[in-house]
Specification:
Elements lengths: L5 E6 L6 H16 L3 E6 L9 H9 L23 E6 L2 H5 L13 E4 L11 H24 L8 H13 L1
Parallel strand pairs: 1-2, 1-3, 3-4
């Protein structure tokens, strides 16, 4: 990582599905487009495992899942944690929780909520959940693509907050 790398933390309570999809898709787009952005994911009560259907959806789309793991958000509050530019919550329960203080390179990171229904709760048995995971991956991928195309290095806090809210409405 360089001093211009923008680190993004994606939060979901259990860090087993939506946040992992976000981390992997953000890193996928950043690599493909040559952007200096790095995604991470974590949870307030991590399950300790990634949902196999999340991994299946990512791998079917050709997305590298190397290094993906379920972890606690406390890993990002330590002095050796990467400085965060953005914190995105992707599930309603994580959005309602009191988050710890995360520090960016120049103060508090920008925070935004991009909620997605839990694909693990989809109806229709295994096939319904598999379809829900793929649709969730696609929806998250679309927003992450928009995010990596922003001029993150030059955007001020308020500009970035507004751009992220605009992406949330898309």
């Amino acid at each position: 990582m360089t001093s211009t790398t923008r680190n993004v933390l994606i939060l979901c309570t259990h860090n087993s599905a939506r946040s992992v999809l976000g981390e992997a898709m953000l890193n996928h787009w950043a690599r493909r487009l040559g952007k200096d952005v790095r995604g991470f994911s974590a949870g307030s009560a991590p399950s300790g495992r990634i949902n196999p259907l999340a991994l299946e959806a990512l791998q079917a789309a050709g997305v590298d899942t190397t290094g993906c793991r379920s972890k606690h958000w406390d890993e990002f509050t330590t002095p050796d944690a990467p400085p965060l530019s953005l914190v995105i919550t992707v599930c309603d329960s994580a959005a309602a929780e009191q988050c710890p203080v995360f520090f960016g390179g120049t103060g508090q990171p920008v925070k935004v909520h991009w909620g997605y229904p839990d694909p693990s709760d989809a109806e229709g048995g295994e096939e319904g959940r598999r379809r829900a995971f793929e649709l969730t991956r696609q929806a998250i991928a679309y927003r992450m693509l928009q995010l990596v195309q922003l001029p993150l290095v030059t955007m001020r806090h308020a500009e970035l907050q507004q751009a992220l809210r605009s992406i949330a409405r898309s």
